[in-house]
Amino acid sequence: MKQLTTILLLFVALAVNAQGKKEKEVIERSYLLSHTVFGTKDSLVLEDLFAKKATYGHSGGKLESRQEAIANIAHNKSAYTDTSINTFSTLMYDDVAIVRFVFKATETKADGKTSALNLGMILTWVREKGKWKLLARQAYKL
Amino acid sequence: MRHLLTIILFFVSIGSFAQRNVEGSVRDLDQALVERDTTFLKDLLHDELSYGHSNGWVETKAELLQHLFNGKLVYKKIESKLLTRNNADSVTIVRAESNIKYVLDGKEGELKLLVMQVWVLNKNGWQLLSRQSTKIN
Question: Could you tell me the domains of chain B?
Fold first, then answer.
């Protein structure tokens, strides 16, 4: 009986651990996305982050397909400084994760004009071949 | 033979109910919000719902129902045009353009929004897990 309890506890611990690991991974992917979109603009990293059917919504109401979003991010001439992420939350639902956070930065456009960004973000991640992939992103102004 | 046909039809109808297009739920949600049908909304909204508005306000399921019930936020009209619908396993992302007439704290307003909805399929059908809107410039 004691052995059975030990074995059961082991499985519960493993299951909890697996869920914790997935949550940790999705947080890492969310930070990587933000770092790529507002930093390196590396299209290869974006190709790996985006799900096949991803859609990408901007705070001004523009909606892009996967292909459009990756091309526009890679060719974005703006530079972002003083970037910060806060009030981060995750909701895990089977192999779906909803991530919300607030992104702040100073944007410097190609012509040198600067403006403050204060955006709310919501990301929906799904598992594809054991990896978290971005199915949808929506930004909104705060 | 006739029995067999009945049984097959029974399963087909159950199958099609489960597979029911999420578009129906999107329409039901708009209608239930306008009609303040909180009983129906309780089924349509997932318990872990986060419902984000274009002004940055994010409501839980309990808050959304309370604000409809006490009249803090009333929808006079919601007209949604479906833009895209993408699914992966048991989750569907719906994007729509919505024209909304509302009354917030007694003040009337009108908005044109890009809306993202995250629907998940469970034994009760499609349920809204998350929603976020932003104003269309």
Answer: 22-135 (3.10.450.50)
